[in-house]
Amino acid sequence: MASLLWFTILVLAVGCERLAELVVATRNRRWALDHGGIEYGRRHYPLIVALHIGLLAGCLVETWVRRPEFVAGLGIPMFVLVLAGEALRWWCITTLGSRWNTRVIVFPGLALVRRGPYRILSHPNYLAVVIEGAALPLVHTAWITALAFTVLNGAALTLRIRVENRALAQARAA
Predict the structure, then answer these.
(1) Which of 53, 54, 68, 127 has CA 20 to 30 A from 18's CA?
(2) In 3D, which of 73, 67, 41 has the Cα closest to residue 166?
């Protein structure tokens, strides 16, 4: 029972972190649109939000209903991956500064950022999402949530990355 309470606190902490991201994203969105940024993919954004809420809710519902055992050999490495995913996400946020957003907003004619994690990967923030989406539920053996989120997130990210790549290509051409 104690491990379930600690897991609940972890999921709630991740939820609070997501709310902090939304505060940063809302501020950055206003700034971006005021400075010539163009938003793409508005229609799929509610799907992304619902998916992330579903991840957190799924973690809690599955663990409180199924009551899986905490398996330290799985849970501890997954917790480390959750922390690594969070660190990568905030590295992305600080690297992009006011250009970071949870939405697809690009600046026509502005060069892509090629520092921080972006010198290694085109979409490092999405790697953080993939890591966390699989690892967070597995901290407490919520394998159904991990599997469901991974499959649904794969579909959502396929759409999202296509939209973002098209938007970036259009912005570079402008």
Answers:
(1) 68
(2) 41
Global pTM reads 0.92
Please give the structure tokens belonging to residue 18.
């997501």
Angstrom distance (rounded) from CA 31 to CA 25: 10
Domain count, the chain: 1
User: What residue numbers bound the domain in which 78 lies?
Assistant: 2-173
CATH code at position 107:
1.20.120.1630
- 């993939």: which residue's tokens? 130
Q: CA-CA distance, 163 to 168, in Å (whole number)?
A: 9
CA 76 to CA 79: how far, in whole Å? 5
142 CB-contact burial (10 Å; exposed 0-12 / middle 13-18 / buried 19+): buried
132-161 pLDDT, tens digit per residue, is 999 999 999 999 999 999 999 999 999 999
Q: Using alpha carbons only, give the angle 166, 96, 82 rounded to the nearest 5 degrees.
A: 95
Q: Residue 18: CA atoms inside 13 Å, Cβ hemisphere, count? A: 19
Beta strands per DSSP E along 2-66: 38-40
- Return the bridge partners of 105, or none: 39
